[in-house]
Amino acid sequence: MQAHLTPQATDRRPALILGGVLIAIGLVAFAMQQTGFDLTDWLGGSGWTLFILVPGVALLLAAIVAEDGPAQGLTTAGAIVTTVGGLLLFQDQTGNYASWAYAWALIPMAVGGSLMVHGLRVGRRDLVGVGARMVAVLAVVLVAGAWYFESIFRTGRVPFDLGDAWPLAIVGVGVIVLLYSLLKPARTEETR
After folding, report:
1. Domain residue ranges of the chain, discontinuous segments joined by +
2. pTM of the predicted model as reported, rounded to 2 decimal places
3. What local confidence, expressed as pLDDT, does residue 75 receive?
4. CB distance 21 to 61 below 8 Å
5. Share of the chain above pLDDT 90, in %
6. Are the C-beta atoms of 88 and 52 separated by less than 8 Å?
7. Whole-angstrom Cα distance, residue 127 to residue 68?
8. Is the dihedral of CA 64, 66, 69, 75 positive or negative?
9. What is the Cα–Cα distance from 102 to 159, expressed in whole angstroms?
């Protein structure tokens, strides 16, 4: 015999998920309090980042039990918030706040990753493809940004000096982009 959920039962699902997450957080906090475990000491004074990380992880956990439409939103929101929290934790631990110059690429990269994960979960190849392209492009942006900006931070100079030729370099990149666009095969409705 298969049980069918009534509309009232499905309307309760988000509240049940939220209640379960809050109970789990409360139990962990209570256990830490009772054992004297101080997470902020363990994190080296970066406990404030938990106010960002914990909600991000809670959103990701909620996404696991949510259905298709809400799950995608929860996965994306959870990925963004958790990534920002993790990045802030890293920066607070290392003091490398200047990494924002290029580390911002991790945020849209997390969105791409969330699309890939959700697409795999629900069997949507289109989401997996879009997410994979986002991750690949933003990984290049992240690596190039890290190379460029960290060179400036270490030496105080750009990693390459074009002198007065920088306008010609921009023209050259423009020519490459135009040639690539003109020479690649056109996409038809069948190949999209």
Report:
1. 1-95, 102-183
2. 0.70
3. 92
4. yes
5. 39
6. yes
7. 13
8. negative
9. 15
